Each structure stands twice: as C-alpha cells, then as structure tokens.
Amino acid sequence: MRRLIGVFTTLIMGLLTAGLVTAAPASAQTGGAPPGLGGFYAQRLAWSACGGGFQCAKLKVPVNYAKPKGRHIEIAVIRLRAQGPKRIGSLVLNPGGPGGSGVAMARNAKLFLSPALRSSFDIVGFDPRGVGLSAPVRCMSPSVLDAYHALDPTPDTPTEVRKGDLYQQAYAQGCKANTGGLLAHLGTRSAARDIDVLRAALGEQRLTYLGFSYGSLLGATYADLFPKRVRAMVLDGAIDPTTRGSSAGSVAHSFEVAFTAFLRDCYRAPGCPFKKHKVSASFKELAGLFKRADRAPLRNDADGRQVNEALVWRGVMASMYSREQWPALRAALADAFKGDGTALLTFADGYNGRLGDGTYDNGGEAFVAINCVDYPPTSTATRSQVTYVPESRYFGKYFSDGLLSPCAFWPVKGTEGVGRPLRAKGAPPILVVGTTRDPATPYKDAKALAAQLSSGVLLGFDGDGHTAYGGPSTCVNGAVDRYLITRVPPKDGTFCAKVTAAR
Fold this sequence. Notes:
Blueprint: H1 38-41, E1 48-49, E2 55-62, E3 72-80, E4 89-94, H2 102-107, H3 109-112, H4 115-120, E5 121-126, H5 142-149, H6 158-179, H7 188-201, E6 207-212, H8 214-225, E7 230-236, H9 248-267, H10 279-295, H11 309-319, H12 326-337, H13 342-352, H14 363-374, E8 430-437, H15 443-452, E9 456-464, H16 474-486, E10 494-496
Parallel strand pairs: 4-5, 4-6, 6-7, 7-8, 8-9, 9-10
Antiparallel strand pairs: 1-2, 2-3, 3-5
Helix pairs in contact: 7-8, 10-11, 11-13
C-alpha cells in the first residue's frame, strides 16, 4: 500500500501567532498542550479537495520536541469524511513499516475497512515524519539502490564482505547528506508525539487508532506517552517493544513457519513445483535454488538486472505476507526452478518499493533510518565477526540482528530510543491482534505486548499472512469493528478459528 495515487495541494501553515492558522476547539486539547507547544496544538487543518472524495492538509510539527522554537516540518494528512449520519469522530490509520504511507493506506480504505467503520468515522491517514510526503528521507539514487538491494546476503569471501560494508557506509552517509538535522529525530517517540498534535488539530478529545505491524509499536508508544488521550486503539500484527522490533531469530523462525504452511498448501494444489512433497526436502530444494542464484543469476525477461540470491530470497520472503499471493508464488517458483527469475523479481521489487519507472518510493530508506534511530547497534562487532542467528535452520542465515545494515555505521545518535516495556497505565482497553503464522510479527509478540499493556486485550487468529483485520476472518473483523465503534473489546484471550481459503 505504499504507492501514492492522486495529486496533493501543498498548504503552507504558520503558527497561531503568525495569523495563518485558526485555533482548534479548546476541548480538543485534553490535558492541555505540553509546555512550548501551544501554537502547534492550536492548529486547525486547512483541508483542500485532493481527488476521489478525499481532502488533504498539512500539519506543522517541530523537528525536535525538546526545542520547539527551532526548525519545523510539515506532515501530510488525508481524510475521507464519515459516510453515515452518526459520525463518531476520526479513525487514524498507520500501515506499519516503518516507512509505510498512511496517506496511501487511507486512499485504499474501501479495500480493507468495513462499511461500518467508514460510516462511523472520518478515515484519516498521515505520512509519519521522514515518510512519503512528510519531509521524506532520501539516501541513495535509484541505480545505487538497485545495486544495494542486490548485495550478497550471505557473503562468502573477504571481497564480498568488504563490498557490503562499503555500501552500508555509503547508505548511512547518504541519509545524512540528504536528510540533514531531521535524521536524529525520526524515532518512534517523536512520531507518536506528532500523532497527538494531529489529534488536537482534528478536534478530537481522544484518539481512535488502527495500526498494523510497526504501527502497533507506534500506537503503543503513543498510549504510553498519552494514556488518557486514548479513546480506542487496535494494534494488529503486534511488535514486542522489549525485543528491539522483534528479534532477528524470532522473525527468521516465523518466516520458516509461514513457508512451511505455504508448502503444505502447495502439496494439495495443482502445479506445485517441488519434486518431493515433504517439508524438509522442499526446504532443501529451495536452498538449492538460492545457491544456484548465488553462483549464476536467473534469467530476467523484464529488464537487464540479474536475479541473484538476494533478489530470489527477497521475492520469496515478500510473498509470505499474504496468503492470497501463494498461487502466484507457486508459479514464480516453478519458473525459477527452470531458470526464469522474472516473477520472483516482481515480488522483490514490490517489497523494496521499486516503481515501474525504475525509481523507488522512500519506504525502504525510511525503514532503515527510523530503525537505526530507534535501535542503535548494541555491539561494536565488524561484519566479518557477525554470526547468523541459529533459531531458523534454513532462513536464519538471512538475518543478523541488524549488524549487517547501515545501522552499524549510523552517523547520528537518536534522541529518544525505544526497547522497553510499554505499560500505558491509565489507558482504556487496548485491543492487540495476533496471527499464529504471521511471518513478520510472531504471534508471541502479540501475547507479550498485550501482557505488557496495563489494559491490553489479546485477540488471536489461527491464520496465515501478515496482520489479520480486513482479511477473511469475520470473527476478527467483527470484533475489531465492534470495539472501535462501541469501545467494548472482546474477552481477553478470544481466539478466532482458521478460515478455509480457496486456492
């Protein structure tokens, strides 16, 4: 959902004292504005039509909340007005990432939000700081990003190791050169404070929020900072805040669990490309494909790029995010075993944010920048000293707890880190949703977050793919809708049964 559709009108907004913004209703400022932030909290968004029935605006926020009189940036905001006669308020969305565009997500609201929610709420999306249309992070040119995404994920020689280090250093320095002083202030806590400014500018006393994946960490951080300003909050595909954004070993294992589920489905479908219908044998066959692509890249009928191990792996990984992609993955793997990597490259490009014209959206760069600020390296190990995570037999070598990333060379120090339990003491019930075979956010993370939050309520789903709401489970969708509308959550520990999907 990261691609943007439509044209935005740029709205230059000033402080209340400059006379360019009118005051929001006093009732919107529940608990009052923090010291020095009155002008930001007093904004009223100047909405302008931006196509498809949507309205767009810009929200002014300080780069550094500790120095609110310093530089400011503008956050892109979009809304679709409530379509029913009994409007409850605004429902703020975040698609995750970090780096996902909430503006793009809101434009696609009809694809995944129920009629009941669209009838009851103004659907509001925003691009977090550093993302999309909100002072976007940029680090590398498209051609260099092509080379970066094709880096060998399992370097075998000192030359390959050195090449990787040089690219990681260049990535980090490029982010600094192109982003400047904002780079140190891209952390989740700052983005959560932006949400509270947005809440006030929307005229809402309390926040109603639906966040997916990383959006769960962003929402939980908001609730921890402003517990009494929460009306209702759903955190789907949850991240455990204490494990540095889900530990690499845990995620590697989750991808392996997800691929196992794909294999068992594949064996029952026509055209399954694996020679032996046994999980261990199929994993070995996939590993053989990775090694083959490492030695000699697969054919690519789309353009001149080589489909090497990195892109084959990324294509397989990307396809695990949705069960609906499994038929296409079966076909892509069948092609790949025959030497054609074109379809897997398409999956990889989608994950990497590569657009049809060869440029990239900035989701990947924002992902790196936000994570490097939130989770600075805890080790001084060099790339050659890194040992791959052991929790996953087949996929573990593609994960390394972030040491093989630009974060090892990050040029700035974040001002506000994460990585501690989030309690949100005093908040109303917060609904945490977890999927048992979610590849990217393990189910145990949802259980952990629900237990950490003082008012956490866990809703589980026996399912596949990343996140649950908007998918095939009427149990999940109904529970989330009822809670957001009535503020009455399901019973803690409610578990929604598996849904049989057509192939």
